[in-house]
Design brief:
The protein has 108 residues and is of the alpha+beta class. It is built from 2 helices and 6 strands.
Length: 108
């Protein structure tokens, strides 16, 4: 069973924000920590269980947890892949860059 306690978290740490129906996870930096809450932007999470405070959707409550190295790598990979796709779709890469990517991928 996963432990949701955020007792060791301090300002500046990265937390994994996820929820039941979210199709992706997000890494966000902690702004501050109080005795009972972790504050990230305008959102507050309970230290005891990581659940977002004041969320009106009881079926899809966002939850904060301490990410593993693998989770950080996977999220960064997804971000990079999305960025690359956006740049290709917007024609923001040169022909040479496309050529080099294809060689790297073993396509050419």
């Amino acid at each position: 069973m996963k432990s949701w306690s955020l007792e060791s978290v301090k300002a500046g740490d990265l937390l994994l924000i996820s929820s039941r129906f979210r199709s992706y996870d997000t890494l966000l930096k902690v702004d501050r920590v109080t005795k009972t809450q972790v504050v990230i932007g305008n959102n507050k999470y309970r230290i005891s269980d990581g659940k977002e405070i004041g969320c009106s959707d009881r079926w899809n409550i966002p939850r904060a947890s301490i990410p593993t190295g693998e989770q950080i790598e996977n999220i960064q990979f997804s971000k990079n892949k999305k960025l690359l796709i956006e740049k290709l779709q917007k024609d923001q890469v040169t022909k040479q860059q496309v050529h080099d990517m294809l060689i790297l991928l073993g396509v050419k």
